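Before surveying the methods themselves, we first show a specimen of the format, giving the amino acid sequence and backbone structure tokens:

:::
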Amino acid sequence: MLIVIVAAVLLVVSLIRRVYFQSQLEQKAKYNFSPVLGGMILLGFLTPLMREFGRSLIFLMTMSALVILTFIAGRNGLTERGVLLPKLLTKILDFQNIIKVNLKPLDINQQSDVVVATFVEKKTKRQYALVFEMSLNELMSFLKSKLPSEAQIET
């Protein structure tokens, strides 16, 4: 039961952080469906536990927080502090921890500009990609104002 309580606390804290950081988004990325898929798979594995813990208020709160977090985790973008990443447990990649950004404009149709931005983390070299519906110049000027001077922006 202790693991359920710890999971409930983590998910509720992550949910509160996610809602707060989503309210701080300055540039919104397109909705990302990967957290929804990951959350649904996790919920599928947790469903058999309903028989044992189904009457527990903490377990129901954990499942509810997971369902809500699964759907709102797809909204990401750029905040004042950094990049809100598409993860179930809310994570902000601080602009100071970004070493490189690759911007690739996509020509999907003539009516809207779409840019794929790949952010490379300084310590782990891990890459995070977000898709923005804005012009390349707008996104580049926003990033230049936020990123440290040693960060590279490639197109």
